[in-house]
Amino acid sequence: MKKFRNVLLPIILLVVLLVLIYVHEKRDVGTGETIATNAGIENFSQIENKSIGWGIKRNDNHSAPDLGKENKAIMDEYEGICLGNSEKKQIYLTFDYGFEAGYTPHILDVLKENDVKATFFITAHYVNTAGDLVERMIKEGHIIGNHTVNHKSMPTISLDKIKTEVMDLHQMIYTKYQYEMKYIRPPKGEYSRRTVAYTNSLGYKTVMWSFAYDDWEQDRQGREEYAKKKILDNLHNGEVMLLHGTSKDNSNILDEIIKEIKKQGYEIKSLDEFER
Fold first, then answer.
1. Choice among 147, 170, 244, 249 that is catalytic
2. What are the tens digits of pLDDT across the range 37-79?
């Protein structure tokens, strides 16, 4: 019996050690901490960091836009989201938020009335000033996405700073709402091969878009017919639609837009249902 224990004890210790190593290398879910399992920061620093501004060439004939060769190559390489299945009439509705302008309660009402789930990419400022609305988004089944703490262009900051910008917001959302984010939209639409690779290692999937228009300018509201035409003329299969929740026009036309999208035979799907 003693001999058996002498053999068994080292085996148990080895198993415990292997388990501890495994846990250490994996993401600690719910803590806001992530350890890259395949490479350290020094490895990511070798990846190209040329800043790229997401730009697309729209087609006003319900066909998919030209994403650009470089954009498409990087999104494909890192399994980012920007344009879905071209054979299916599906649209993914997303909103970007840096601050609350007073229109979100109505936007959420419209989404609820039309049984539509959207994704809201938010900053730390938004969480700190409109926490009740974030809570409502989550309770009503919408997705909360990471738009970083301070909305800094990621190719211009260090990898350590990127981790802080992403994971501090991740921790904040988890602590407040026990909700774990998994999608990120690069601030200002600026990214690089390095930043996409690195945020992937932090457990995030990059989400860009295949439609957007100049809706963020606060002094250029009151163009509802212009906004409706832009949105409806550019509907296309697999569309990832970006709207800004700070736009009064978007708030006013959202119900009409959603109804027309459905009338034209499109389904509005959650990013969790994304199909390539």
1. 244
2. 344 677 898 999 999 999 888 877 788 889 999 999 999 999 9
